[in-house]
Amino acid sequence: MIFVTTGSTKQSSYYTELISIIDQLIENTRIKDDVIVQAGNSKYRGGNFKEIFDYTDKIESYINAADIVITADGAGTIFSLLKKRKKIIVVDNKFASRYGAPASDFVGGFKESGLLLWCKNVTDIEKYIFLAKNTVFPEYKSPGNTIYEKIVSSYEDWNS
Amino acid sequence: MRNKVFFILGGGGHTAQMILLQEKFPDEKYEKHFIVATGDTLSENRVKELGCYFIHKVDRYKETEDSLFIATIKNILLLRIVRQLLQSKNIVELMNKDILISAGPNTGIFVFIIAKLMGNFCVYVESWSRRKKLSKTGSLLKYFSNLFFVQWEDLRDENKHFIYKGRLL
Fold first, then answer.
1. In this structure, are residues B13 and B127 in contact, taking their beta carbons and an 8 Å threshold?
2. Partner residue opposite A155 with nearest CB, options B12, B121, B149
């Protein structure tokens, strides 16, 4: 199953284009998988999807069931997908970038490490779905952290 | 007596990072307070799921689609800035040389600055989504932080005061 999630961004037209292209690919049997879409504010309805909805509080269950996740969402979503070892296609969020949202700041690094695919132009999405199916992604290894320990020791020094 | 620790939540990834960090602070040693944006029910519900903690609300400084400049103009024209300052002051009055931690949402910028000026221990953790460039909030709050963490080594090399101690996820 392919799960497409647009998050809660208010810039809807870009995702309408993405969803529309995927719909056409299903229509033309270029995509034969089940596709479920969380369309958010794009208001795209109907089409050839197995399911399409605005939002859900069961997003985790959709993600768990997905083989490939196409997301335009932020860092938190991408990290949680990495931890779940999902095949991730990040769709460049041009609108968010304009407002300083950060995806492209770190997605490039993950792409270089082969942890995800980065589709910068939605018209190329078919190619990236094909690539995702035929790619074995490495496991994301967190460096761990000692942020808490540093905060507590510095606070105790400061407070003494 | 337990120390207080205040976490600023800000939707999506910011909240996720603070939720992960707060888990490390043991309840028997720290009284946890969460500062959420008015209307951010997702973050509020996540805190409620954690158990019985203190929740404080402040208005957002800016909406995602607004630039910092436009947001400032809107806030001044609509006198929202007065309300935000009052809300922030009320929260800071609960602090007494306590810890305040932000992962960078614009919610709570005033809380952070006022808390620092009032002599609290202010910790800024730049979001994990910032690998090469600080957020605008980070660029401002680095001047008001006792500790300033970045979560990528690329950013640490930019400034000798930036601390890299790994990544929350």
1. yes
2. B121
CATH at A117: 3.40.50.2000
- Give the residue from chain B lying closest to A149, CA to CA: B24
pLDDT tens digits along B10-50 = 766 788 889 899 999 999 999 999 999 888 888 888 888 88
C-alpha–C-alpha distance, residues A73 and A55, integer Å: 13
Segment holding A88, helix H or strand E: strand A87-91
CA–CA distance, B145 with B125 (Å, rounded to integer):
10
Quote the number of domains for chain B.
1
Q: Which residue of B65, B135, B167 is in closest CB contact with A142?
A: B167
Structural domain boundaries, residue B88: 8-164
Q: What is the pLDDT of residues B130-144, one digit of tens each?
A: 888 898 889 999 999
Residue B23, domain CATH: 3.40.50.2000
Long-range contacts of A17-24 (CB under 8 A, 24+ apart): A17/A122, A18/A70, A18/A72, A18/A91, A18/A122, A18/A125, A19/A44, A19/A47, A19/A52, A20/A44, A21/A122, A21/A123, A21/A125, A21/A126, A22/A70, A22/A125, A23/A47, A23/A48, A23/A49
Q: Is residue B57 situated within a structural domain?
A: yes
ipTM of the complex: 0.91
